[in-house]
From TrEMBL:
Higher taxonomy: Eukaryota, Sar, Stramenopiles, Oomycota, Peronosporomycetes
Name used for this protein in its record: Rab-GAP TBC domain-containing protein
Rab-GAP TBC domain span: 1-205
SMART domains (alphabetical): ANK (SM00248)
Keyword terms, alphabetized: ANK repeat
PROSITE patterns xref list: ANK_REP_REGION, ANK_REPEAT, TBC_RABGAP
Organism: Phytophthora palmivora
Length: 318
């Protein structure tokens, strides 16, 4: 299976993110671990040692997908397993699956707004109860959800009301791209730990420049979200984060500094050479976004952009 048809930047970024988020324990890891043990039975029989390796690989791919998309359902097992059986590496299987969810609207098939699917599954369950009640009861005792629980899918959970940390308004949300220990280190402002974890990851990735930059870009994003200017300096100056990096929706660090109303971040990014006229997929520059954003006051960030003020001294890099 070839990956050449997918956007190069998307694949390159998410291959590296896979190595960051595929192994930690998350809320849904237990359910995933239960489900992967019965997935490969639908394919040709493998030797026991091959089966164990396949299940471990499938767990990591699904673990990463569930964390990135903040959702999981049993139907994801077959898709991810098929990619692995067809010869994709774990990182490529993750990147392809994520691309289908984000860019090809695969996530929408399990959304609660898919009324036709809900109705179809309801009728299927009624037929199962009528015609195969014992088999249905047995499957339920084994943990199978019948019908598929659309509420546990990825697209719905990312639109929950009232939680600003998880709301994605057209892509304007906190990325789900860092393992818990790095995310917490950034949130708490522990620069020395962030630097140590970044260096350790680069070593694990055999000193890959791409791995270092991808992680640095995500650290910068989290630093902007939590208003940690010193961590942002670290990400840029020590870890080589790209101040004009565009995420999957075309948004740059300046865009996120605006929606978080972080004037010091705007000053820092401008001091480090960020482009004022960089546009997102919505054709809005950071300044235009500051004028149009209605979900939060952006006055402080907007004033800095309008005056193009750059502070004379920025925090020292850790």
């Amino acid at each position: 299976m070839q990956m050449r048809v997918l956007p190069k930047d998307f694949v390159q970024r998410h291959r590296e993110i896979y190595y960051l988020i595929s192994t930690p324990e998350y809320e849904r890891s237990g359910a995933i671990g239960r489900d992967v043990t019965r997935t490969f039975s639908i394919f040709e029989r493998s030797h026991q040692h091959q089966l164990a390796a396949q299940q471990s690989a499938l767990f990591r791919v699904l673990n990463a997908i569930a964390e990135a998309e903040d959702g999981y359902c049993q139907g994801m097992n077959f898709i991810a397993a098929l990619f692995l059986v067809e010869g994709l590496s774990e990182a490529d299987a993750y990147a392809l699956f994520l691309y289908m969810l984000k860019k090809r609207h695969l996530a929408g098939i399990y959304h609660r707004s898919s009324t036709f699917l809900d109705e179809y599954l309801h009728h299927f369950d009624l037929m199962f109860i009528r015609d195969l009640p014992k088999l249905r009861a047995h499957l339920l005792t084994q943990g199978f959800a019948i019908p598929i629980d659309s509420g546990s899918s990825s697209s719905e959970n990312s639109s929950a009301d009232g939680d600003e940390e998880s709301v994605f308004v057209g892509g304007f949300g906190l990325h789900r791209t860092l393992p818990p220990e790095i995310a917490e280190a950034v949130r708490s402002g522990n620069g020395s730990l962030v630097r140590h974890l970044w260096e350790a990851h680069v070593i694990r990735r055999h000193h890959s420049a791409t791995a270092g930059v991808v992680l640095a870009n995500e650290i910068l994003h989290f630093a902007i979200w939590y208003g940690r200017v010193s961590i942002a300096c670290l990400a840029i100056d020590r870890c080589n984060a790209d101040v004009d990096n565009k995420d999957d929706t075309g948004l740059t660090p300046l865009h996120f500094s605006v929606v978080r109303n972080q004037p010091d971040m705007v000053r820092l990014l401008l001091a480090r050479g960020a482009r004022m006229q960089g546009t997102s997929m919505r054709k809005l520059s950071p300044l235009e976004l500051a004028h149009r954003w209605k979900r939060r006051d952006t006055t402080a960030a907007r004033l800095v952009l309008e005056k193009e003020e750059v502070c004379l001294s920025v925090p020292k890099t850790i």
